[in-house]
Amino acid sequence: MMNLGDSPVRVALLGCGVVGSQVARLLLEQADDLQARVGRPLELAGIGVRTVRERPGIDPSLFTTDLAGLVDRDDIDLVIELIGGIHPAQELVLAAVQGGKSVVTANKALLAEHGPEIYHAARLADVDVYYEAAVAGAIPIIRPLRESLVGDAVTAVKGIVNGTTNYILDQMHTHGVSFDAALADAQQLGYAEADPTADVEGHDAAAKAAILASLAFHTRVRLSDVSCEGISSVTSEDVAAAESMRCVIKLLAQCSVSPDGTLAVGVHPTMVPLEHPLAGIHGAYNAVFVESVNAGRLMFMGPGAGGSPTASAVLGDVVTAARNRVRGVAGPGESAYTSPGITDPARVVSAYYIAMVVRDEPGVLSRVAEVMARRDISIATVRQEQTRDDDASARLGITTHRAFDGDVRAAVAELTAGGDVLGNVRVLRVEGA
Amino acid sequence: MMNLGDSPVRVALLGCGVVGSQVARLLLEQADDLQARVGRPLELAGIGVRTVRERPGIDPSLFTTDLAGLVDRDDIDLVIELIGGIHPAQELVLAAVQGGKSVVTANKALLAEHGPEIYHAARLADVDVYYEAAVAGAIPIIRPLRESLVGDAVTAVKGIVNGTTNYILDQMHTHGVSFDAALADAQQLGYAEADPTADVEGHDAAAKAAILASLAFHTRVRLSDVSCEGISSVTSEDVAAAESMRCVIKLLAQCSVSPDGTLAVGVHPTMVPLEHPLAGIHGAYNAVFVESVNAGRLMFMGPGAGGSPTASAVLGDVVTAARNRVRGVAGPGESAYTSPGITDPARVVSAYYIAMVVRDEPGVLSRVAEVMARRDISIATVRQEQTRDDDASARLGITTHRAFDGDVRAAVAELTAGGDVLGNVRVLRVEGA
Prior knowledge:
The structure is a homodimer. By secondary structure, the first copy, chain A, is α/β, with parallel strands linked by helices. The first copy, chain A, has three domains: 9-137 and 307-326, Rossmann fold (3-Layer(aba) Sandwich), CATH 3.40.50.720; 142-303, 2-Layer Sandwich (Dihydrodipicolinate Reductase, domain 2); 345-430, ACT domain (Alpha-Beta Plaits, 2-Layer Sandwich). The first copy, chain A, has 14 helices and 17 strands. The longest helix of chain A has 20 residues, at 307-326. Chain A is elongated and about 85 Å long. The relative contact order of chain A is 0.13. The model of chain A has no long low-confidence stretch (mean pLDDT 94). Chains A and B meet through α2, α6, β12 and α12 of A and α2, α6, β12 and α12 of B.
């Protein structure tokens, strides 16, 4: 990488939507401060967009629809990628890196899918690829994992990393509304998109889980390694059951070391005890909880989305990459020297909540207990109550101590096959206090 | 700085007490992981101590009482300073930096007093000076402020950065015990030292406030700039008053921009509403709350002290500095291009709680209200109750909206001089929700 002499650090911005327009605005409005922090001016040299149209306050001559041409320009030092998606973001980011430009991106899907190739290319080209904005918006979590905790052994990362689903679940708890009503409300407020699939089915959180797991465990976890369960199946009954257990349901992105040394990485609606710090994260806020051998339990919380918070994270990366550039260096990258493998889904360990409607007659509970015991599932609590509509059935709510996921599923299947379980089976994970 | 070829990164450790012995242990036990993360072996090349004695698991030949000689050794790449205090730490750190060694330190007192000279020397020598462990133990807050939030405009940092005082205040609230009893308890548990002055009088927190303010506002704040009020004056009555207002008392290290653009940096026992995230930080935990223009409100929490958590923060810095060293670079340093000046203590703005025993007769409350109004102090709530022992006096508890500290002090002085106030005057800050 070349030292820049006294010239400005020239920045190309790809994408000028909700986040991109904030980044452009801040680059222009805070130019003096940014220059003082970097040591050279940060010059917005071009903005790649799909359609050129007027944007207030931005010189129209900066816009181009030729994104590849913009990235290839010799005078560009740093590329901010905010177009999202895999293509053409992947090609543009790789072209930038291979052309000796540092890259700042908020593209979680791209990194979860193609991070390893991109980091490798960055290492070869001795440039920075920074992506603080890709996970949990403005919350600094990437840099703390990559640098602050790099001398420690992380054992688990548990995060509320999707504001849309947290808002929906929070509404279901606070106002007792259904999932559909809470989703409609979130859509009206702009917290959820017209097609909410990526958020509510957990895909967005799964990409972030892959990125967090890779960093925390010095390995390469891809999106396809992440088990994923969304919140569209969460019912008002689940919410009521959680409350009766002094819990709230949160969509947690988790990565942790399993007993066999492999990594369990997943996104699941999870019952979180009220005393747990993650239970207090409301609305569209995000939080990431980290457990490590020496540091103990840490939590990072803040706004998980939105134009300004995400732009803040992007600009922090831009200033740090530009500072490196001015000094002719690149910062330390990720390390990925471990290959623990991904835990077989059946061998994932968790505490569980199991609800089911059973025949209300003597012997059922003892058979349930027997099936659980035979599969080494230790029962923590049992709660049985009459169903409203029927004298012949009862609702059973069981919480277990930590057990293998496969054993829990098999026990439920056996009970169902045996005729004791009449239906309405629900299995949810329960987080420790 | 020289690139190291294939040789190990050689580390000198100064100090082998609670934190130092943990650092030494982890450098030895986790050598393989650290090597994989750094890309070269991290070799513990010498340990400077006051008195050489056997330490289990550590090669006795590593120890020396010649700390200056150890720092001067040509084969040392990185110095970890854990001896604390100003002398000889200052001389050793400067010698290391000037000798081209990177430094990792947990020495808040040194940095609050002499940080500017040390950072300047590091810049000239192109080496790293990292100090994540100096503030809030294992919680990553230095790196997030220096790098992640460097593209944003921080407006306030508010932290519980002293575990001893948080434990004591927590005990006073939870168990209704006096300050003296809670302190004795903390001493017995090892949370407080035999001479607890530095903790309970806020000096430790003040040093951390200076470091946080310097980073967050890109300036140089020294310990002498920090106004400081400890918790030894906090009474059970204060605690009860806080609880009646749905608050808890926390010792907050605060830095924020005052209306006149100067910086207010102080440590004060403060009433924090229960809904505020800082209110939920219990025991010896620490937390730092950051407000910025674009990111919004962020909070970082975790263990604030202890050998292992502090060692985790030290080792994170060691690995990052060593990674830089292996690549022949130094990371970006602090910027300190602003000189906002320190807010005149009388012009510091806060909401206040004012308690006083007044004569219980008609007209007193109206005179109190008149004095406050004349000084532009807007009253939020008033609570008056009979004192237990006396019919002629009443206890008045007033909360104000945001007002100048000097005006509040002057109003109280005027009321006292006027004879309405009989005594027991108490003024505490109140944090916004």
